[in-house]
Amino acid sequence: MIFSLFVVMTLVEIYVLVTVGEAIGGFSTVLLVVVTALIGSTLLKQQGWSVMAKAQQSIDNDQTPAFEMLEGVVILVSGVLLLTPGFITDAVGLLGLMPWSRGYFIDQFLSKNAQKIFTQKNTVFIHRNRQQNSHQKETKKDTIEGEFWED
After folding, report:
1. Of 20, 42, 66, 69, most Cβ neighbours within 10 A?
2. Tens of pLDDT along 92-121?
3. Nearest to 37 by CA among 115, 91, 74
């Protein structure tokens, strides 16, 4: 699936680059790709620092910066898309850097994948209910084994 998406996107990007190159010229096309990359990198830096500030503010308010972490992932993916030469990937990358569309991407991802994420059988969370604990003795403590040495 990912490989076929990669191949199709590469072919579409090449087609768009050739079409634009025929319309405005090869040098202008390369210059336009470089300019969009420069604009994108400036916007990437600005939005990255903005999300870092929001995350710091959430931490200062004793809140978990979960949404800000997801925004950071979208910004990271957008940065990779902006580094990839082409107009389609640049457009999607720039959309990922806009705060209003970034929120939309996160909402869509969570609405489609929340069921899978929170119901996986191989979760790393340890679930203990009271029935399991009632079978154990109340005085029994969990033992943590380890080694310690001093230099």
Report:
1. 20
2. 999 998 888 888 888 888 888 877 766 666
3. 91
Mutual angle of helices 66-83 and 99-118, in 10-degree steps: 110
> Does residue 96 form part of some domain?
yes
Domain count for the chain: 1
pLDDT digit string, tens, across residues 13-37: 999 999 999 999 989 999 998 898 8
Nearest to 101 by CA among 74, 68, 79: 74
User: What residue type is assigned to position 124 of the chain?
Assistant: V
Q: Is 48 exposed, middle or buried (0-12, 13-18, 19+ CB in 10 A)?
A: middle
CB 71 within 8 A of CB 102: yes
Instruction: Give me the pLDDT at residue 140, please.
Output: 60
The answer as to whether 49 is a domain residue is yes
For 75, the domain range is 36-113
pLDDT greater at residue 43 or residue 128: 43
